[in-house]
Amino acid sequence: MPKQATQGFNGRLVFAIAAAALGSAFQHGYNTGVVNAPQKLIEEWITETEQNRTGQVVDQSKVTIIWSIAVAIFCVGGMIGGAITGIVAERFGRKGGLLLNNVLVALAAIFEGASKAAGSFEMIIIGRFFIGINSGLNAGLAPMYLAEISPVHLRGAVGTVYQLVITISILVSQILGLESILGTEDSWPILLAITVVPGIFQLATLPICPESPKYLLLSKGQEMEAQRALTWLRGSIEVHDEMDDMRNEYEAMKLVPKVTLKEMFVNATLRIPLIIAMMVMVAQQLSGINAVMFFSTKIFRMAQLDDKSAQYATLGMGAVNVFMTLVSMVIVEKAGRKTLLLIGFAGMCCTTILLTICLAYVQNAALWVSYISILLVILFVVMFAIGPGSIPWFLVSELFNQSARGAATSLAVAINWTANFIVGIGFLPLQEALGGNVFIIFTILLALFVLFVYKKVPETKNKTIEEISSMFRQISYQ
Q1: Which domain, by its residues, includes 51?
Q2: Residue 311 belongs to some domain of the structure
Q3: How confident is the model at residue 5, as a pLDDT?
Q4: What per-residue confidence (pLDDT) applies to 300?
Q5: Does residue 136 lie in a domain region?
Q6: How many percent of the chain have pLDDT more than 90?
Q7: What's the average model confidence in pLDDT over 236-246?
Q8: Chain segment 83-101, per-residue pLDDT in tens
Q9: Rounded to an integer, what is the distance from CA 384 to the centroid of its chain?
Q10: Same domain, 186 and 297
Q11: Domain check: are 105 and 36 in the same one?
């Protein structure tokens, strides 16, 4: 590694990254994936519980509605958590906000873990709502903290860690949900309550780490504290250059009034990066990744794999997602953000075209068409993980200076969860109406996203926040 690449990269920084990311992104990923495996078991339990209460035969459609609410309420909580990120980040700090957020984890674990013993499916819904708020807050606070503690030349790689932990935790939830482990009639409450483990890990490790130096200097005006935090993170007293950059940003901030939500939309210098941040978040969710993840087991079954093989193939897909996010983490500083977004979205666009063709013929075609469908699903995940999966989370922190970062993150994260919710609610009815042709919608959307990224998204690799801000000032004057 060249000297610049290793500069600032040390054990303490790794520890701070792990403390912040593992305890937060894990909740986001684990609770996204955990409900898939035990769905049938929990639905049977809901039927039984409702029958015991009413003494009548329960209609399956009622059970489906209850289950849909339990799954979707997670995204509703995410929207709320995302929307209050800015307030929490400014009032309690990035580290303080992450630590405080674990109160919601404890509540969620108690409600979900005790639901079966209490004979109350409402407790699952309440627990999912709490962990949704927690995940929405994490999705804003953790990437913000990671971006602010990392050196400029490592910001992209460190920012990718959040998505990497999401992919790992989805895989963990799929493995633990196997029938041979916790996907059983007696063990599924434990499967849901395990979400408390990363919370305990974070409460044990994050207090050792300092608050974000940028938050201490730029939001609190505590120069000595900021220098102490930066010295701890870099493992060196040679932090003068970085402190100078932060002081310059601090001086520039003093000239600008505190940014309000209204200002974000009225001021062109802020509106342009805000539209970019929000569009990239929408693109991530409407790219069809959730649909493909959801549809994967069904596609594998269409390819005449039995239930168990289809489940293992889905696990394999999760593992590919983890591996490719690791690849993205290594190459993001070399290739740049814009390039990886373009490659990812364009690759996904081409894959959905081929997948639509295969799905149209898969029912009455030769077996090799089915196997091509499986390969295309895996290729789609590879393309997503290369850029669109990880970059949107930290790009928001890169596009704004300290005074606007909290408000911008709130809006972008809330938009991300809203888009996630729309896909979650809308995909099944669309898929029932259109069958395999549902992917045509994603093909069109992906083509539009490629065009948007190409035209509007700037390259932020190795640029300081001040350089990025001046770039937007120039654009807004044109």
Answers
A1: 1-209
A2: yes
A3: 42
A4: 79
A5: yes
A6: 69
A7: 91
A8: 999 999 999 999 999 999 9
A9: 13
A10: no
A11: yes
Query: Do 369 and 428 belong to one domain?
Result: yes
As for how many domains the chain has, the answer is 2
Q: Mapping DSSP to helix (H, G, I), strand (E, B) and coil, where does residue 179 land? A: coil
Question: From its phi and psi, is residue 305 left (phi > 0), alpha (psi between -120 and 50) or beta?
Answer: beta
Dihedral (Cα; 210, 26, 81, 283), 10-degree rounding: 110
Question: 209, 240, 275: which is the final residue of a domain?
Answer: 209
More confident residue, 385 or 255: 385
> What tokens were used for 417?
């969860």
Whether 63 contacts 390, CB under 8 Å: no
Judge if 52 and 161 occupy the same domain.
yes
Has residue 434 been placed in a domain?
yes
Question: 333 Cβ partners below 8 Å, 6+ apart?
Answer: 5, 153, 154, 156, 157, 461, 462
Q: What's the pTM?
A: 0.92
Residues 345, 269 share a domain: yes
Q: Are residues 272 and 383 in the same domain?
A: yes
Nearest to 93 by CA among 402, 395, 468: 402
d(CA 335, CA 67): 43
Q: Cα separation of 188 and 178, whole Å?
A: 10
Distance CA 72, CA 129 (A): 9
CATH number of the domain that residue 79 is part of: 1.20.1250.20
User: Tokens 């906000």 map to which residue?
Assistant: 97
pLDDT at 2: 40
For residue 132, how many C-alpha atoms fall within 13 Å in the half-sphere facing its CB?
25
Q: How many CB atoms lie within 10 A of CB 241?
A: 8
Which pair of structure tokens corresponds to residue 32?
A: 């996204």
For residue 125, being part of any structural domain is answered with yes
From 469, 464, 425, 309, select the one nearest 374 (Cα to Cα): 309
**In terms of domains, do 297 and 436 share one?**
yes
* 436 and 306 within one domain: yes
What average pLDDT does range 118-130 have in this prediction? 97
190, HSE (Cβ side, Cα atoms, 13 Å): 9
**Tokens in use for 438?**
């549902």
- Amino acid identity, residue 177? G
Distance CA(307)–CA(298), nearest Å, equals 9
